[in-house]
């Protein structure tokens, strides 16, 4: 049981003591805006006014008088009906001891209870290098998957490879044009083809492998070969790029598999059997309007009898269900917002559990260097890639910056800030706190001070020590909230608060020159507990915790 739950338990015991034990109260426990207002505060008195027929101030005073008797608190204040709690240092010292005892597992919880959950993210058309926008999605998906593993879920990471359909035909032909260009034959890349210079390297590989066999020859064999070669090369490059920021997948799911295993056919047949499919204008339609307030959508096109992207996506998610996942979470760019209600309608039409599919959207990314926003385009091939970003700022900054902004907010990735070695750079600021703690222990060794685990915790009573311990105690609560809200930025914000509390502690209180041996050991233990929490948080973010900087 962690700090906020412990405070709630104290309040519930007190409510029972004053005769309020038969109702559920959703009162809040929050940290006050100023440190001198207490460690935590609660609105519980405001929720009891009707029941007790008293003002919040009167009720808060009754509760204050009772709670103030508990050894759990140093004192409790009633401030205009809000209860402000000053937690006893002994409580924090016990939590510190727990952190020190469980360095690899502290903060884990089990709301997942072994639920099989799949995260699908970075499902990018394999038509070119990965952009920074897709990089944000890749990091967000990977960090969320890490957090869910901490929450007791069995997690699988999957990338869906859009390797069938018209865009791959265009990509294959665009590669063939580049191949012929090397051989001196001039052909035009279609208007909606792919013009990026990245295809030249793949064209050279095809030339080395097949020679001039396909010069001026575009037929079924050529299309198959160029399709195979470009997909292999694009996927290899994509996975290499994502590997540079430690984003890896358990499964790469090929769109082609939906046709090979007749999953599209099965999905259509099941939707037909349930009465959700009809024919019109030589096309096959899904009765979206029977389920939500939206027009019906085409599943099979009339002009080529090919399934639409929507049809494939329904089949893909139906297959996820048949593969045994309890829940699937898709992470998409905000431009897919219109796709969500249609997919939810398809889940309902197929009779899948209502909570089977969850779709998380993220906003776009702008890359800023100096005062300039770097322009990005798509098919022209002139865009700032994820590789470019990694090369400019490194893996840690890429992962941290992509995680640190609320997914609902556009991210302005400031390259100059990301490479700055100062406290202005948030990832540097957090990593430096970890490195500084490591340097304290190295200095202790030089001075012949042997670190003794757990010793001296009872001496930690100064305001700076207590505030740092309070911050450390909140790690499980922050992690829980980040999982429930699907917001990795809550974890980065927390780590920055821990770093701030630690730097304040370090700058105001001496660790190795404290007045007695026990206090030195107590502060070393507090440093160690802080190091554990920072390292745990950075590990979940996929960011290094350096020992020196």
Automatic annotation (TrEMBL):
GO biological process annotation, one example: arginyl-tRNA aminoacylation
Single annotated GO MF: arginine-tRNA ligase activity
Domain DALR anticodon binding positions: 430-549
Subcellular location: Cytoplasm
Keywords: Aminoacyl-tRNA synthetase, ATP-binding, Cytoplasm, Ligase, Nucleotide-binding, Protein biosynthesis
Cytoplasm recorded as keyword: yes
Keyword Protein biosynthesis assigned: yes
Transmembrane segments: none
Catalytic activity: tRNA(Arg) + L-arginine + ATP = L-arginyl-tRNA(Arg) + AMP + diphosphate
EC number, as in UniProt: 6.1.1.19
Entry GO terms, CC: cytoplasm
Main localization, broad class: cytoplasm
Subunit structure: Monomer.
NCBIfam families: argS
Record protein name field: Arginine--tRNA ligase
Native species: Petrotoga mexicana DSM 14811
Name of the gene: argS
